[in-house]
Amino acid sequence: MSEKNNNIFHTEISDGVYQLSSKTDGLSLDPGKPSRNSYLIIGESKALLFDLALGEDELCTYAQNLASKDMIIVLSHAHIDHIYNIENVAKIMMHPDDEPLLLKGSIFQPPLKKQPKITFLNDGDVIDLGNRKIDIIHIPGHTDGSILLFDRKTGILISGDTVTRRLLYGMHSFVLIEEFCNKLENLKKLNITNIYSAHDRCALPFEHIDYMISLLKQFSKSEGRILDFPFFEKAEFFSDGNENEISYFDFTVVRR
After folding, report:
1. Percentage of the residues of the chain whose pLDDT score is greater than 70
2. DSSP letters of the chain?
3. Residue 227 predicted with pLDDT over 90
4. Whose C-alpha in 40, 152, 168, 222 is 20 to 30 A from the C-alpha of 126?
């Protein structure tokens, strides 16, 4: 783990793949409370910064200095906690289904005052960073345009808020749980070594996919604890396991 004299630090989680984190959430890499993390993947010709998930305005400069080469910015999705300081960014890449959320906002998110140039990414697209190919995987559910990145070189899946220990669901177009689980099943065809999400620093094992699928199917047939949820009428909350251990999953589904 390497630290700088600011609020951001980085950890090289595999060859040329870095997790960028905020000291505001502490320094621990162990499972626990949610944290905020962006990811930097460095190829021979260029680098890719996945998500603007840190509130610190020096994130892009920090990532650029670490990469030491041209860098593109890709969003896993357009929720407010993944687009910090985006109005200072000239260009981004994202899935088209989240463009309305990014530009126009929603009842819980203001519209942008200054819009970056957007290049769209779709399911099955490949980004070549130079001797390093990154597959784009679209799995709607958390948002309409949520995407994941698979690094063929290391087998790391960077999953945003889709494959995670905490899943928020139903705030946008509702995807049937069965359809969402089928998309998760397709991930098992990849040669995944580890999974890294946006709000945990710990690596999730390949088996976490089956763990999620099993619990989502179980939760969809039962009633969760009712929560008051900002901007929506109510939400149901389900959980399994201990948050301080890898085997933990909670699921909040918004009801309209």
Report:
1. 98
2. -EE-SSSEEEEEEETTEEEEEEGGG-S--SS-S---EEEEEE-SS-EEEE-B----TTHHHHHHHHH-S-EEEE-S---GGGBTTGGG-SEEEE-GGGHHHHHH-BTTBPPPSSPPEEEE--TT-EEE-SS-EEEEEE--SSSTT-EEEEETTTTEEE-TTTSSSEEEE-SSSPPPHHHHHHHHHHHTTS--SEEE-TT--SPBPTTHHHHHHHHHHHHTTS--EEEEETTEEEEEEEEEE-TTSSSEEEEEEEE-
3. no
4. 168
- Predicted pLDDT of residue 4: 47
pTM value is 0.95
pLDDT of amino acid 3: 44
Tens-digit pLDDT profile for residues 46-60: 999 999 999 999 999
